[in-house]
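Backbone-to-sequence.
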């Protein structure tokens, strides 16, 4: 034996146990695979004997290695070997492997559950071999060399690893044994199954061989030419054709029922497929020869047109929201939606779902993004959902059905033709629904009377008409938006079908989107025009007959002069049940349906055309009934939802439709700039003329308590309402200098009207001849600069005697020696009341108008573009945020530095007119006092034989006038103004009674006593008017007469008199006036004159010495 053989024997000694242990099993496996089922038991017994032999050899107990600490024990043994090598690194490496072994312990447990313990043990042994004996797995490894190294006990040998090698070998044998124990039953079963499969294959091969032989024999038989066989073949083919024809007829007979069922279920794709296949089948040449199918052929041909009409009608029902399933596509208005467009607030969840889903994506966009329109739509017959429940998907279904039917082009043309009528019906229906929810009688009867005025200057937040117009706009714009969404679906679906089927002229089919936008634009323009432009209720148009006014309005707006919504004539007393008329009607419908499908789809139902007087359009450009009165101030309600609607359309308009998104609101800009603004100034001026042109414009407002503490004029409240409403409207528009100038012009015009009214109150009547002036004396005094200056000092609470004396002196100088007559006084009590109301009104409107003062940045104002059109450069619809009407927000009038001075000048004019009226009232009170006192002194009788207790009639008249004068001014003016008007009357009376005593012609003692009575009566009356009034000086002046001349001279000598020489001279002259006037006794008259001269001389000497 050679060395090579000897090495092989030694190597075999190392693995002998493995070879001997598995020899029996290998023999069993070879015999089992080669023999049949009869050797199964014999092989199984041989296998069992092999197991026994293996078990007898595998005496070593390796159970400890299967314990969970076996690897640690083995590691300890390996660590013992490390001492012989003296390598610390080797120990660290082994400890690392031990940790890896513990980590693999959990993996081994999982493998035991699935593959048994043998598999996990084998994998562990293989891992150890790979880590420690990896060099033996190499193809270039020489086993003899390794065996020699294991036997070499030198430092270069591996004898110290021999025990580890032997241990690994034993574990490998044990793992293989475990695998055999775990899976030998499966091996046995697979062997039996394999034999069964082999038997089946062998049997199948025999049958196939027999079948092949039969086919070859049949081929030989058929290849021989036998006439009887040929006849049988031909007869068989005829019978087959007849059977197929009968089956086709049976199928066609079931088509009407299937078709009606699919149409009733709204499964139009299936219905079209059924109809198309049936028409194709029944129009085959063989079927055309069957006369019994003529009625069915006619029915199916008719159903094609009927189904096309039905599809077109269904398309219109969902396009224009006629179906109940479309209610979730538009928002129903709710009163709690206020934002505060707002935008164009709240609302129901159902309404919000029409626009966005939970993820915030619009329903239209979600539908478009989730569908590929270039792919055909398939009808899901298994779904139990109603196809109409998803309106947008239903529109696509109808379009796909029309395309499959071959009527897509015709359907699109019909949609474009019916578009104006359908939109009109939609608007009219919405208008009627809103009218039913808010009856016009209630909306018109609940008109807001701004500050009690009968002219409507805008809508307040709580006005019912605000709810009406918001309901109309929100509902209508929401439906317009849904209609645009429907046409967007048509646009995308038609483009997808055209791209899919390469249809010529696809662009023309998709152009309907532009047309629907143009019609909606026209409806919006007409709607805004109707509710902003006044018709019969304004200005001179109020007296114009309605028919003529409508004709003029139609000519101006470029519309036809005939209202097409009204019936020109009506056939009455026509019996529609006559056979001839019915036959003609059916023929007409048939012709129309054949020529223009869809035109008379609804005409099969009887319709009665009636004229409803309650639905007359009131001359509106849209032809619809107006729900509220038109007014330019409605712009604050109409503009915000309109802009919000146009902004929402940007998400609906497709990019390739020919409509630029940024130009959507351009038509609204054109309307506002070219239509609304030019008519705004004329409308405001007409409203101003109507406001101040009423007969009671300068009368007291019956409802003044709502807005003022004192009564004001009715025209003033109306005018302020106009200005306030105008400023509120401007708050929603970009600032424009023209608006500020227009407001200043209106204020100036109203001041001129009020000043004219003041001049009319104080004017002299034509019967009163006065060459110097056209106004009363009090008005003249109020306009004199010196008197105004003196009164101005008193108005500033300077009621000192010096100020009063200065005023009296100025009045005396202005009047001169001209007496104040009755014609110089304002004798009408109503005029005094009018002056009081005028003063209060001017003061009130000045305080209100000054609150509108606001200086705006000049850059924010709109400017003209420099062209002849005068259009503003800044677009109104580009406002960053549309501001809606808010009752709580202050109202301002934006102005520049250039216009603010003119505004302040107008406000100062109102204040100055208030001051002028107050000066006039004060002057009137003083003129009245002067007039009656002068009349009392110059025309009164003060020479009596007996004492007289009654005062002079002039005094009584003066007291009476002062009482009602005080009552009127106290009612209409403030206490401070009343005090200013009536202050100083006592001082004036006291002065007049003393300084003008020379006007008394004759005075005796009873007359002097009567004069004291007059003074007492005046004093008592003045206590109720002017608490500080004191006529003591005048009373003491006339008491000098009663006391006698001696007491007068004695008091003069003592210096106790408070009067001047001129005043005392008058009382001395009056003292001798009675005697001097006695013409019968000339001697006594001469004596009295001498006494007069003596007393005057003595008085002069006394006063000179003082």
């Amino acid at each position: 034996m050679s060395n090579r053989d000897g090495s092989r024997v030694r190597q075999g000694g190392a693995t002998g146990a493995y070879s001997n242990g598995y020899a029996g099993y290998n023999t069993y496996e070879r015999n089992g695979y080669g023999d049949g089922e009869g050797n199964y038991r014999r092989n199984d017994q041989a296998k069992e004997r092999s197991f026994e032999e293996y078990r007898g050899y595998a005496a070593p107990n390796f159970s400890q290695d299967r314990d969970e600490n076996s690897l640690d024990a083995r590691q300890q043994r390996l660590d013992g070997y490390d001492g012989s090598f003296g390598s610390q690194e080797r120990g660290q490496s082994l400890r690392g492997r031990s940790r890896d072994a513990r980590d693999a312990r959990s993996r081994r447990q999982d493998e035991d559950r699935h593959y048994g313990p043998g598999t996990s043990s084998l994998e562990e042994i293989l891992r150890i071999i790979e880590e420690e004996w990896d060099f033996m797995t190499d193809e270039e490894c020489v086993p003899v060399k390794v065996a020699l190294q294991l036997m070499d006990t030198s430092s270069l040998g591996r004898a110290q690893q021999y025990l580890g090698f032997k241990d690994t070998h034993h574990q490998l044998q044990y793992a293989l044994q475990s695998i055999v124990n775990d899976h030998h039953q499966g091996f046995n079963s697979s062997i039996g199954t394999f034999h069964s499969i082999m038997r089946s294959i062998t049997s199948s091969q025999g049958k196939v061989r027999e079948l092949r032989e039969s086919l070859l024999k049949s081929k030989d038989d058929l290849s021989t030419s036998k006439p009887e066989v040929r006849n049988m073949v031909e007869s068989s083919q005829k019978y087959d054709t007849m059977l197929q024809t009968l089956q086709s007829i049976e199928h066609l007979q079931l088509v009407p029922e299937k078709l009606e069922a699919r149409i009733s279920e709204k499964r139009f794709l299936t219905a079209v497929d059924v109809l198309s296949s049936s028409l194709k089948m029944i129009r085959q040449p063989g079927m055309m020869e069957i006369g019994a199918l003529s009625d069915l052929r006619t029915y199916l041909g008719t159903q094609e047109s009927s189904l096309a009409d039905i599809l077109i009608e269904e398309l219109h029902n969902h396009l224009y929201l006629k179906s109940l399933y479309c209610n979730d596509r538009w928002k129903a208005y709710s009163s709690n939606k206020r934002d505060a467009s707002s935008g164009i607030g709240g609302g129901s969840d159902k309404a919000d779902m029409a626009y966005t889903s939970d993820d915030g994506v619009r329903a239209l966009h979600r539908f478009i993004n989730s569908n590929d329109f270039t792919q055909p739509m398939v009808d899901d017959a298994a779904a139990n959902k109603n196809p109409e429940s998803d309106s947008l998907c239903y529109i696509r279904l109808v379009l796909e059905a029309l395309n499959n039917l071959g009527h897509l082009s015709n359907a699109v043309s019909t949609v474009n033709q019916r578009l104006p009528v359908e939109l009109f019906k939609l608007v009219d229906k919405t208008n009627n629904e809103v009218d039913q929810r808010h009856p016009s009688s209630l909306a018109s009867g609940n008109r807001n009377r701004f500050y009690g005025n009968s002219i409507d200057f805008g809508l307040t937040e709580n006005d019912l008409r605000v709810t009406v117009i918001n309901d109309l706009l929100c509902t209508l714009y929401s439906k317009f938006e849904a209609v645009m969404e429907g046409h967007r679906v048509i646009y995308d679906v038609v483009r997808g079908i055209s791209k899919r089927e390469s249809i010529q002229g696809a662009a023309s089919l998709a152009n309907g989107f532009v047309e629907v936008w143009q019609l909606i634009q026209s409806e919006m323009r007409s709607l805004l025009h109707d509710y902003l432009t006044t018709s019969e209720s304004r200005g001179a148009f109020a007296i114009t007959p309605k028919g003529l006014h409508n004709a003029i309005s139609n000519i101006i707006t470029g519309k036809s002069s005939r209202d097409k919504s009204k019936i020109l004539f009506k056939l009455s007393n026509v019996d529609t049940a006559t056979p001839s008329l019915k036959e003609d009607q059916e023929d007409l419908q048939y012709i129309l349906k054949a020529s223009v499908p869809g035109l008379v789809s609804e005409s099969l139902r009887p319709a009665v055309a009636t004229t409803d007087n309650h639905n007359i359009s009131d001359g509106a450009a849209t032809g619809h009934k107006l729900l509220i009165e038109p007014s330019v101030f409605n712009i604050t309600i109409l503009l915000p939802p309109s802009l919000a609607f146009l902004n929402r359309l940007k998400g609906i308009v497709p990019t390739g439709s020919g409509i630029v998104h940024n130009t959507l609101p351009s038509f609204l800009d054109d309307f506002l700039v070219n239509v609304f603004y030019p008519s705004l100034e004329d409308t405001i001026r007409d409203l101003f003329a109507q406001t101040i042109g009423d007969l009671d414009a300068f009368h007291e407002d019956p409802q003044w308590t709502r807005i003022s503490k004192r009564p004001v004029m009715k025209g003033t409240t109306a005018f302020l309402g106009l200005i306030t409403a105008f400023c509120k409207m401007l708050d929603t528009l970009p600032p424009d200098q023209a608006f500020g100038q227009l407001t200043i012009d209106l204020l100036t015009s109203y001041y001129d009207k009020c000043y004219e009214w003041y001049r009319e109150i104080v004017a002299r009547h034509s019967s009163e001849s006065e060459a110097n002036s056209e106004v009363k004396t009090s008005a003249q005094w109020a306009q004199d600069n010196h008197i105004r200056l003196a009164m101005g000092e008193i108005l500033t609470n300077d009621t000192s005697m010096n100020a009063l004396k200065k005023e009296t002196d100025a009045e005396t100088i202005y009047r001169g020696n001209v007496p104040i007559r009755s014609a110089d006084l304002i004798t009408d009590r109503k005029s005094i009341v009018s002056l009081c109301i005028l003063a209060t009104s001017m003061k009130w409107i000045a305080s209100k108008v000054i609150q509108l003062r606001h200086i705006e940045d000049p850059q924010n104002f709109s400017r003209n573009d420099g062209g002849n059109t005068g259009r503003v450069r800044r677009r109104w619809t580009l406002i960053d945020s549309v501001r809606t009407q808010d009752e709580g927000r202050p109202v301002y009038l934006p102005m520049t530095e250039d216009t603010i001075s003119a505004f302040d000048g107008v406000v100062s004019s109102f204040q100055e007119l208030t001051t002028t009226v107050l000066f006039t009232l004060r002057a009137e009170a003083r003129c009245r006092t002067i007039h009656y006192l002068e009349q009392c002194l110059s025309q009164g009788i003060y020479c009596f034989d007996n004492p007289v207790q009654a005062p002079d009639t002039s005094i009584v008249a003066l007291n009476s006038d002062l009482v009602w004068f005080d009552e009127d001014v106290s009612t209409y003016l403030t206490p401070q103004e009343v005090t200013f008007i009536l202050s100083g009357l006592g001082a004036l009376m006291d002065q007049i009674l003393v300084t003008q005593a020379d006007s008394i012609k004759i005075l005796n003692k009873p007359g002097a006593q009567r004069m004291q009575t007059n003074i007492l009566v005046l004093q008592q009356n003045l206590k109720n008017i002017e608490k500080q009034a004191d006529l003591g000086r005048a009373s003491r002046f006339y008491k000098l007469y009663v006391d006698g001349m001696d007491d007068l001279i004695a008091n003069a000598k003592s210096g106790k008199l408070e009067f001047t020489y001129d005043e005392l001279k008058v009382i001395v002259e009056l003292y001798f006036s009675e005697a001097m006037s006695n013409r019968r006794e000339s001697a006594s008259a001469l004596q009295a004159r001498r006494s007069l001269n003596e007393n005057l001389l003595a008085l002069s000497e006394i006063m000179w010495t003082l």
